[in-house]
Design goal:
Distance between the termini: 23 Å
Bound molecules: oxalic acid
Number of domains: 2
CATH topology of the largest domain: Rossmann fold
Mean pLDDT: 97
Largest sheet: 7 strands, parallel
Oligomer: single chain
CATH superfamily of the largest domain: NAD(P)-binding Rossmann-like Domain
Structural class: alpha/beta
CATH class of the largest domain: Alpha Beta
Order of helices and strands: EHEHEHEEHHEHEEHEHEHEEH
Length: 310
């Protein structure tokens, strides 16, 4: 078994939580392509994140990859042999991302940014906050992550609508639109939370027309992947104040380059891809359960459908 994470102490922490099924399994840890290269050809199970795709073509024994995150597009490369089963992590990130969503919605409605600035200038600026209660949150993607976000937002008194591929009803969500209703849903929202996986279908999902469908006061919260939003269109909409603002955790290029215009826009909050952290201790029970299933020949949990991309 190979544990791979591109940071040595974190890779070690992931490895420390692994419960090996028997004494004949050996566990290797790598955090650079150079360390992984001599190991990949003898690996049956890869427990990894940001694994160098070029090495996957050399993984001739590989049978199963457990990704350490929710979004698995980095593994869905032509080098990945078709016989390898890929699993993602479910049940872990939703609660984190629900707190992120509600936290940043409150940052907007409580005008936290404004009051911090005013405090620094010792200015008494009595502007009323907005109500979160009754505000409409549109969750785009109501899967394992979107549903806990919807539940948490509802508990805070928000009204929740959503968008999914098929538009099937979801308990507690007032109205679920299918993709053909995306713009209608966006137009009804005060906050839009993006939590779809990156796939050919979702690349550029939010472009010029979708941004134009949003209310001029609405905020976009992107926790999905940068390319789900057409970055140029978003920057124009923000600069021309055609939407209220954006809270962005993901970007086309990460880390966001120092000279990037999004850093300095006053209607943008930038966070460095932290909305759903991969904590070794939190993910370990999921991995160890799947490992037992793998060893016993039982079906694995959260197997990725490669054609769908999640
Ligand atoms: C993930 C991520 O997909 O960290 O899990 O973005």
């Amino acid at each position: 078994m190979l544990v791979y994470y591109p940071d040595a102490p974190t890779a070690r922490a992931f490895a420390d939580f692994v419960r090996l099924p028997d004494a004949s399994t050996s566990l290797h840890v790598a955090s650079t392509p150079e360390e992984a290269a001599p190991l990949v050809g003898k690996t049956d199970v890869l427990y990894g994140w940001k694994f160098p795709p070029e090495l996957l073509g050399r993984a001739s024994r590989l049978r199963w990859i457990q990704a350490m995150g929710a979004g698995v597009e980095r593994f869905l490369v032509p080098e990945l042999p078709p016989s390898v089963v890929l699993t993602r992590v479910t049940g872990v990130f939703g609660p984190w991302m629900a707190e992120y969503t509600v936290g940043w919605c409150l940052w907007v409605t409580q005008r936290i940014h404004l009051f911090q600035r005013e405090q620094q200038a010792r200015r008494w600026t009595a502007v009323d906050p907005l109500r979160l209660h009754g505000a409409v949150l549109c969750v785009v993607g109501l899967g394992d992550i979107g549903r806990p976000i919807a539940r948490t937002a509802r508990r805070m008194g928000m009204r929740v609508i959503g968008v999914t591929r098929r538009g099937r009803p979801v308990a507690g969500v007032e109205k679920v639109h299918d993709l053909s209703g995306l713009k209608t849903a966006l137009g009804a929202a005060d906050f839009v939370a993006l939590v779809v996986p990156l796939s050919p279908e979702t690349t550029g999902l939010i472009g010029e027309e979708e941004l134009a469908a949003m209310k001029p006061s609405a905020w976009l919260i992107n926790m999905a992947r940068g390319p789900v939003v057409v970055e140029g269109a978003l920057i124009r909409a923000l600069a021309e104040r055609r939407i209220g603002g954006a809270v962005l955790d993901v970007f086309d290029t990460e880390p966001l380059p120092a000279e990037h215009p999004l850093w300095t826009m006053d209607n943008v909050a930038v966070t460095p891809h932290i909305s759903g952290p991969s904590d070794p201790a939190e993910i370990a029970p999921f991995f160890n359960d799947n490992l037992r299933r793998f060893v016993e020949g039982r079906p694995l949990r959260a197997v990725v459908n490669r054609a769908r991309g999640y």
